[in-house]
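Good morning C.,

I know you're traveling, so I'll keep this short. The sequence:
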Amino acid sequence: MNFDPPWVTVLPSPDSLNQFLSDPDERGAAGGVELRLDLWPEPPSWGTLAGIPVPVIVTWKRADHREPERLRYLRELLSGKGGELWLDFDAEDPPVQRGLSLTVPRPPGVRILLSRHLTRSMTDAALRGAGRDLLRPGVDAVKLVLADSGAAGTAQALRLATELASDGRPIIIFCAGIEGTASRLIAVSQGQPWGYGRLRQGPSVAAGQPAVADIQSRYGGGLRSGEPFFAVIGRDVSRSLSPGFHHRALAKTKRRERWADLSLDDPEALLEPHLLPPLPPDALAVTAPFKLWARRQGRAGAPGEERHPAWNTLLRGERGFTGWNTDVPALIERLDSSAAASDAPTLILGAGGTAQPIALELSRRGTPVWILRRGTGPLPPALAEAYVVEVGPDAIADATILINATGAGATDADRLSWPIEDFRGELAIEYCYAPRVTDFLHRATAAGASAIDGVELFAAQARRQAEILSGIRMTESEAQRIAEEALIELLRNRPEGVE
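The tokens, ready to paste straight into the viewer:
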């Protein structure tokens, strides 16, 4: 039973199955479906199973109040009543522990996938043992979901998959959580038989599942072994526009880079020796909170880049990383095209990796720069040494330009506590782009100020990034259009969790 393309759409309800069957894009992008029957109100009929036009995996996790119904249905599937399919059993399910499910005679078309979802970190040796324990007689394929995630978990999954592949049976290993998206894409690129995703619109069974119907546009169809691997990194980059933007820009070229979003807690894991390909990435788009970290990783990619205290673009070569800051020229370009005077008092909200290089560049240009931040203690050294003044919330009413570089204030849920609505200046600038009109912009423009939103800023910086990393040149209007397309996709793909 082949999964081609190698993506399985996880369906947590009968309605989600109907959505899958009625949408040609969903059907065409998926090589199979997984029916999570533990989340269905009742199991599908044999006719419903037979009507699914792609290979099927059936998963029904233990639930005490439905145990008799579950065991009866699974036995019937094992006997062949549901036709050809995969049955996904948890290795810690009591019937499996007793060996009952694996020893029942079954038709050749009924295959068993034995799974284990880890809840804690393990050493390589312990993971190796957990993986080998799944390779039992009667098992046709195994799945191991790691508790660790990010770069460290992804690297561990790659090592383990390589070691267990000698058994000859299909091995599926990836990381849990939102940080596991890249590991799912990498797993498929390294020859694992399939990866798990979700419907474009609808509930998600687990964090980190990509929308299968949009893997082509957001991830370039997925990684392929041996191709250059680029990644956007940050604490949570599942909402980054970078993969969708850059793959759309690459679509008109013959270049073969593939982008993924790699959420992580510590980027130092990307610098560990002896990583297996495709780690470390060949290039990085860096977002919060790692831009200051990126500045310490290598040499300047062009004259003047060394003066920035933070970089958002890294390209790896034989001598290590080369870095750039594309945020600064993107903002300066937007300011120069606006009607705001260069000597207009500018208040920047925030003092992190986005705010610092912008504040310093504006100060060099003779702009009066004020900083309002949530933290306490001394200003960061880069700002303390420049002509930058720290102010309180009352200064919002006196600024001519107001820039939100905090990463917050996008919605009512994380609205900034400062009196943003007191702003009476000319121009409000927002770095967040989802939603496009954020809570900050709504409040800052209430008195009539003009606005530069996060999509416009992103397009301006990503346009420069694409030329640096891939040699792709595009006009401002092209970059803006591509960024808007990527945003539509991003907002459409915000799933609702069911677990």
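Safe travels,
E.
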